[in-house]
Amino acid sequence: MILSMTGYGKASAEYQGKKITAEIRSLNSKALDLSTRLAPAYREKEMEIRGMIAQALERGKVEFNLWIEQTEGPAELPINAVLAEAYHRQIQGICQQYGIPEPADWMPCLLRMPDVMARTQEVAELTAEEWDAAKQAVAQAIGQLMDFRTQEGAALQSKFCEKLDNIARLLESIAPYEQERVQKIRQRIVEGLQSIPEVEYDRNRLEQEMIYYIEKLDISEEKQRLSNHLAYFRQTMDEGHGQGKKLGFIAQEMGREINTTGSKSNQAEMQNIVVRMKDELEQIKEQILNVM
C-alpha cells in the first residue's frame, strides 16, 4: 500500500493547568523539508521533536507547531510594573519634546510594549513530567498524520489502478486498427504503382520493401513493453510506502512507449487512442507527486 505525502494531525495533553497542543501538517516534497514553531519552554527539545518527525514521515514539506494555553491559575498574567513605568516616563518625555498628544488611554499602549506582560509558560522551567505529557501529544499528532496519509494513499492507489485499467483497455483497442492499417498501406503502395503503367517493377523486390516498411511501423514491441510497465507499476504499489520516486520513473517509461506508438501510428483512429492514453498517463503523473 502506498502512502500520500499529504496529511494533518493535531493532539493535546493536559498538565497542571496547561493545555499543550501539537499540530502537524505535510505536503509533497522531494525530501524532508521540516519547519517548527515551538513554545519557548520547549525549544531545548527541538532536536528530539525533529527526530521523531523525521523517523515517521521520511519525506514531505512538514510544518510543526507546539504551543501552550493556560487553563487554570490566576486570572491575571504577570505584569512587569517597573518596565511599564519606565515606558510611561519615556513616552511622556517624547510627547513633550515633540509636542505630540499623549495617549488618551495609557493602559493598552503600555501593555503592548515589549516584555511588559510576561508569559508564565515562557519563564517556567520545563520539567520531565511536563515533557512526557507534551511528547505524548507530539506522538499522537504524528500518528494522526500517518493515518491521514494511509487513507489518502489508499485513495491514490485506487485512482492509479483505475487509470492503469483505462490505459490497458485503450491498448487492446488498437489491435483491430493495427491489422487494418497494414492492409491499407499495402493497398496504397500497390495502387500507386498501378497508376503508373509505364513503370516496370520487380514484384519480389516490392514485397521485400513493403515488409521492411511495415516492420518499421510495427508496434508489437511497444505494446508488450507498455503492458510490462503497467504490471510493474501495480507490483511496485503493492511493495509498500517509499515508492513514489520509483513510480515516477515507471510512468516516464510508460510515456516513452506511448509516444513511440503515436509516432508509428499513421492512422487517425490509432492516434486518437494514443491521445487518450496520454491523457490517462498525465493524470497518473500529476498524482505521483503526492506519493511518498
Structure description:
With 292 residues, this protein is an alpha+beta fold. Among the domains are: 81-111, no CATH class; 153-288, no CATH class. Helix content is 62%, strand content 13%. A four-stranded mixed sheet has the order 1-2-4-3, covered by helices on one side. Strand 1 (7-15) and strand 2 (18-27) form a beta hairpin. Helix 5 packs antiparallel against helix 10 (268-288), helix 8 packs antiparallel against helix 9 (244-264) and helix 9 packs antiparallel against helix 10 (268-288). The mean pLDDT is 86.
Proportion of strand residues: 5-15%
Tell me, rounded to a whole number, the average pLDDT.
Answer: 86
What is the count of DSSP helices, taking H or I runs of 4+ residues? Answer: 10
Order of helical and strand elements: EEEHEHHHHHHHHH
Low-confidence stretches: none
Annotate the secondary structure layout.
Layout: E1 7-15, E2 18-27, E3 32-38, H1 46-57, E4 60-70, H2 81-98, H3 106-111, H4 120-123, H5 128-172, H6 175-194, H7 203-216, H8 220-238, H9 244-264, H10 268-288
Parallel strand pairs: 3-4
Antiparallel strand pairs: 1-2, 2-4
Helix pairs in contact: 1-5, 5-8, 5-10, 8-9, 9-10
